[in-house]
Amino acid sequence: MIRQLQKRFILAAVLSLLAVLTVIVGAVNVSNYLSFVREADSTLETLCLGDGSFGPGPDAEGGRTDPASRIPKELPFRARYFSVTLSSSGQILSSDLEHVAAVTEEEAARLAKEAALSGHGKGFLNGYRYTALEREHGTKLIFLDCSSELSSFRTNLRSSILISLGGLAAVFVLLLLLSRRIVRPFTENYEKQKRFITNAGHELKTPLAIINADTEVLEMDGENEFLTDIRKQTAKMARLTGDLVTLARMEETDSPRVMQVFSLSSLAEEAAESARTLAVSRQKTFTAEIAPDLEMEGDEQAVSSVLGILLDNAFKYSPENGAVAVTLERKGKQAVLTVENDSTEPVTKENCARMFERFYRSDAARGSGREGFGLGLAIAETAVTAHKGKIAAEPRKEGQALAVTVRLPLG
Fold first, then answer.
1. At which of 130, 151, 172 does a domain end?
2. Which of 158-167, 287-296, 324-333, 360-369 has the lowest average pLDDT?
3. Strand 285-290 to 138-145 pairing
4. In whole numbers, what is the pLDDT of the chain averaged over residues?
5. Which of 335, 331, 328, 339 is nearest to 296 (CA)?
6. Cβ pair 262, 296 in contact under 8 A
7. Same domain, 404 and 265
8. What is the pTM of this model?
9. Is the separation of the CB atoms in 215 and 227 below 8 Å?
10. How many domains does the chain have?
């Protein structure tokens, strides 16, 4: 449990940092990209005013518009651009390559036709930002060389991602080194709690045994309702003490376990045989489908206790003439055990989510008079988790039945 807490803490911290870095890196780079695009579009707009150059161009009244007043003085010397005019049929009418040296007539024509076929008024193509001007004699496409800006943007994007990943890796390493120290107070308190439960359980066994023995002596002079009640309550306390000690021992990761390869199918068959006898005595329907030859490595006694707990609960909380079913099957590299029973009370997802909590019993179960402390499924969950398996409960038959499914790795 402590190791799982440590892993969850590291995972939560790393995912939180990853989310923050993603937002920061994304916001910075998107902002830089939009700023770069706005600057390129502003330059293209100026070139449109000059009809493909930074010189005066025709205005709406037939005069000339000089865009030089709205641009930096050095921009015409820094910008590399060219323009191509296409007819409505896609033929090259004219081209202006005076302000770019790296583009040939053929390449300019190809880029212009490709941009015209795209159907977009503006966009990026091979490192050029282009815009289209509709003219009476055709379409003029103006291209602005943005290759250096795009290269710089990609470099900054790559650098920011690598730096963020490096920082994330460094934080991950630090968390690995410091996580034990961070969760140490919780670990110490948890270990003290388990030791207290174990020690208290052992200490309670002696006075309970003495009370039970004294009750037997007193009963020799004749039974009465008080002695019967004392015996009943001491037996109940003994069962509760045993369950708490069992739960504490199962949660001890350093406690010795008898790990061996055993037949899970045979174990389930034995439990099913006992359940058939119980079903006859309680007048309930019982069915079992056990897949043969399923073997796993683990603590056979612990897995057997899981089967016993699930079957005991299924019979205890099923109505008169109710049905209980057990299935064991192979799914991939896992054995899937399902115990399903009709329920005396409606089964909801909320109840299923809390069934594995210690001492949890629904209100209907507490008022039904059935014996139990709400520790059985908690013990089963601990045993299944110790075998690197999973256990879950879910409603069936529209909430009129309960199914508990256990998944265990096969050997």
1. 151
2. 360-369
3. unpaired
4. 83
5. 335
6. yes
7. yes
8. 0.53
9. yes
10. 2
